[in-house]
Amino acid sequence: MSLFGILYQFSDSFTFLILAALGLAIIFGMMGIINLAQGEFIMVGAYATTIIINQGFPYPVGILGGALAAALLGFVMDRLIISHLYQRVLDSVVATWGISLVLSEGMLQLFGPSMQSVSMPLGSVSIDGSKYSVYKLLLTLLAIGVVILIYLLFTKTEFGRKARATMQSRDISESLGVNTKAVYSETFVIGSALAGLTGALYAPTMTITPTMGNNFMVQSFVTVMCGGANPILGSVLSGGVLGLVNSTLSVTISAFFGKIGLLIITIIIIRVLPTGFTGLIEKTGARRRR
Amino acid sequence: MMHAKERLKNNVFEYAIALITLVVVLLIPFYTGLYQVNVFTYYLICAILGISIYFIWGIAGIFSFGQAAFMGIGGYAYAILSKHFDDPSKCLLYAAVAIAIACAVAAILGYFMFYGGINDVFVGLITMCVTISCQTFMSQTAGSQWQILGVALGGDNGLNDIPGLTIGYYRFNELSLFFLLVILVAAFYIVIKIVEHRKFGYAMLSVRENRTRSELLGYDTAKLQVIVFTIGGGIAALAGVLYCCWGYYITPASMSLKASTIPVVLAAAGGKRSLISVILFTVLYYILSNYLTSAGADTLLMLGALLIVVILVLPQGIFATIIQKLQGLIQKAEA
To answer: Which helix (H) or strand (E) holds A130?
Structure first.
C-alpha cells in the first residue's frame, strides 16, 4: 500500500472519531453529562439531510438542514428534560438513554426500517493506481475546520469565556453574574448541532436506519474517554492516537480488530492516564510554567 | 436482638410484599398452562439479571452496562462445555466453570477500571463498549474456522440444541425449572438482605455514598469494587447459564446494546435502591411487554417515555417510592 493510502486510511479513522466525539465531548466537558442519545441525534441529522437532498436541494443545504434539525431537537430536549437534571449526572444518563429509545423507536414508526440514502457526491480521484473518494478527503478538511471553529468559539467569544468560567467553577461564575443555566442550555444545543452535522456529513456514506446511531457509539465514547474533560485538545489528541491504532489494525488485520483494538487501547490509556489526555496536557503545561 | 427487631418493623411492608409475591408466583402453575409457566421462567431469569444490577449498582453504586456481556459469556461458556463433553450428568460442573470464567473476565475488567480510578459514568461507558464488542465478535463467527473445543460458534445464529439442565440423574422439565428459578430468586433475595446488614454490605454502602471518605476510613475501595463487580458478573453469568437451560439456545443478541441497557433501565425505573422493586418491576415489565407486543404496540417506545417521566418525577423509582410512602403510612398509624 502506498504512503498516500496509509495516510488516507488514517485521516478517515481520525475524521470519523473526531466528528463522532466532538458533540459528546463538548456536552461532557462543560456539563459533565454523558449524552447517551448522541447516536440518535446523529441519526436525526442524517435523516433530515437525506430528506432535504431527496427533495432536490443541493448537498450543502441538506447538511446545514441536518445540523439545524438536530440543534432544534437538542433545544426542545433540553427545555423539556435535560434542564431539570443539570446537577444529577447519573439520572441524566438514564434519561438520555430514554430519549435515545424514544427517538430511534419513534423514527422506526415514522419512516420504517430504512430510508433510501443519497449517493456519495464528488466522485473519486486516482492516486498511484488506487481510487480514493474525494468526499471522504473533503470530510477530513471539514472536520479540521469544525475543530478550529469550535476552538475559536470557546476562546475568542463572549459565550466561550462564560462557558469556560462555568466549566471551571459554576458557583463563582454564577455569583459574578453569569447565567450558568443559559450557558448549559446553549452548550447542549451546540453539542446537538455538532451531532447533527456529523450525521449529515456521513449520511451519503451509510445506510439510513433508525439504529444507525449505534455505529458511532463505541467510537465516540472511547474518544471522549481517552480525551478527558478538555473537549477540544483532548478529543483531537485522542482522535489522533486512536485513529492511528484503528487504521493500522484495520489495514493490517481486519475492520473488526480495528474496533477491538480501540477498546483495548482505551482501557490501557485510562489505566495509565485516568483523566485522559486532558490530564497529560495539564501536567506538562504545569511543568513548563514551573 | 433489638436491632433486628427494629429493622423488621421498619421494613415490614417490603417483607410483606416479598412474601405475597412469592406465594402468588408459586401458585402460577396451578392456574395457568405449562406454556405460560415456561414463559414466566424466562421473566425470572431476567429478574436474576436485575438482581445482579441491584447488587453492583443499588448497593455499591457501580453503574455498569456490562451485565449482559457477563450473561452472554456465562451462557456461551456453558453451552460450549455441555456440547463439547456431552455428558448431562456433569451439568453443575459446567455451570460452575462457566460462572468462574465470567467472574474471571469481570475481575480483570474490574481491576483495570477500579484500580485505574475510573468510576461512575465511565464505568458505564467502558462496560457498554465491552458488551458491544462481545456482540460484534460473536456475530462475525459464522465461518467454520471459529470453533472453541470443536464447537462451531455459529455467528448470528448462535448455539442451538444445548442440553437441558440435569442434576445427577434428574433432568429438569419445564415445571421443575420454574420452581428452581423461584427458589433461586427467593434465595438471592434473602441472602442479599442478610449481606446488606453485615460488615461487607455496610462497606459497599459506604463506597457508594462517598469513596474518598471510605478510603480515609481505611477501606480499600478499589479492591472492594473489584470484588463486588466480580460477584455481580457471576450472578449475571448464572442468569446466562439458566437462559441456556431454559431455551436450549444462545445468540449474540443476548449481548446487544438493547439487552445490556434494558435491565439497567428497569432497575432505575422500578427503584434501584430497593431489591424488591427491581425484581417486581422487571417481571411486571416483561409480563406487560409480552401482552402489549402481542397487541401490536411498540413497548420500547413506551419504556423510553416512561423512563424519562420516572426520572423527572420519581427519581427514586416507581415501586420504591410507593413502598416508602406506604411504609411511612404504617408507621404513622402505629405512632
So the answer is: strand A130-133
Assess if residue A248 is contained within a domain: no
- In this prediction, residue B97 carries a pLDDT of 93
Q: Which domain holds residue A137?
A: 3-209
Residue A23 phi, psi dihedral angles, 5° rounding: -60, -45
CA distance B129 to A273: 19
Whether B144 has a pLDDT exceeding 80, the answer reads no
Predicted local distance difference test score (pLDDT) of residue A93: 80
The rounded Cα B51 to chain-centroid distance in angstroms is 4
- B239-297: per-residue pLDDT in tens? 999 999 888 888 888 888 778 888 988 888 888 888 898 999 999 888 888 888 777 76
By DSSP bridging, strand B151-152 and strand B166-167 are unpaired
Q: How much is the ipTM here? A: 0.76
Q: Taking a C-beta distance cutoff of 8 angstroms, is the pair B172, B245 a contact?
A: yes
The C-alpha atoms of residue B96 and residue B241 are separated, in whole angstroms, by 9
Chain B residues inside the 8 Å CB shell of A218 = 129, 132-133
Closest alpha carbon within chain B to A85: B312
Q: Is the pLDDT of residue A149 over 70?
A: yes
Q: Is the residue at A50 inside a domain?
A: yes
Q: Which of chain B's residues have a Cβ under 8 Å away from the Cβ of A256?
A: 136-137, 140
Contact B129 A270 (CB under 8 A): no
Measure A289 CA to nearest chain B CA, in Å. 27
DSSP states of A172-217: HHHHTT--HHHHHHHHHHHHHHHHHHHHHHHGGGS-B-TTTTHHHH
Interface check A76 vs B, CB under 8 A: no
Cell digits for B131? 458488551
Classify burial at B29, counting beta carbons within 10 Å of its beta carbon; exposed 0-12, middle 13-18, buried 19 or more.
Answer: middle
Q: Are strands A130-133 and B147-148 parallel, antiparallel or unpaired?
A: unpaired
The cell numbers describing B233, all together, are 458478573
- Does a structural domain hold residue A264? no
Nearest to B304 among A98, A214, A224 (CB): A98
Q: How many domains are there within chain A? A: 1
Domain residue extents for chain B? 2-27+42-328
Assess if residue A107 is contained within a domain.
yes
pTM confidence score? 0.83
pLDDT at B1: 45
For an interface test with A, the pick among B56, B130, B308 (most A C-beta atoms closer than 10 Å) comes out as B308
